[in-house]
Amino acid sequence: MSVLPIRTFPDPVLRTPAAAVGPGRTDLHRLVQDMFETMDDVGGVGLAAPQVGVGLRIFTFDVEGQRGHVIDPVLRTDGELVTEPGEGCLSVPGLRYHPERYAEAVVSGVDAAGEPVEYRGEGLTARCFQHEVDHLDGMLYIDRLTGQDRKDSRRRLRDAGYGRVTGTTQADRAKSVSSSFGGLR
Ligand code: ZN
Q1: Is 118 a residue of the active site?
Q2: Which of 84, 87, 122, 132 is catalytic?
Q3: Going from the N-terminus, what domains does the chain have, and what CATH number goes with each?
Q4: Is the pLDDT of residue 166 over 70?
Q5: 134 C-alpha to center of ligand 1: Å?
Q6: pLDDT tens per residue across span 54-99
Q7: Residue 32, CA atoms < 13 Å, CB-side half-sphere
Q8: What is the 59 CA–ligand 1 centroid distance (Å)?
């Protein structure tokens, strides 16, 4: 298994809707294992395939005692729109905001063996599922911010020189992202 490099804003892969995997794929075990290892390495609660440069609809998660992966997820949401708990993103390190998310979510799909899977959760788990499915649609959580948070996030991305920073080692990046979404564990 390998820890994969995590793509960060403004890498275009993060803005590209991922392709459906579809039935019959038997070659995804390795990718899923590498995604788990990468997510664990940085202490993340979720990781979507585009974050490691793979444009397929797959995500892994380890949040509030549930751990798994979903291929071609179908997301259903319910409940109120809430702003707590907040969120960050391994691909946008250093920022943390509180976009509105539905309080409950159910995600269904298949696993790497092609078996049907379904997971449900509230609060942080529901937020994680919505965040990861957004990644598969080419959307980042900062896109869901409104008002002052939206302005503030854009200024901070600009001031932090996102997109100009190159040569960051994986070890440095791992340190910088550990306080991100993973910091909720
Ligand atoms: Zn993310």
Answers
A1: no
A2: 132
A3: 12-158 (3.90.45.10)
A4: no
A5: 8
A6: 999 999 999 999 999 999 999 999 999 999 998 999 999 989 999 9
A7: 21
A8: 10
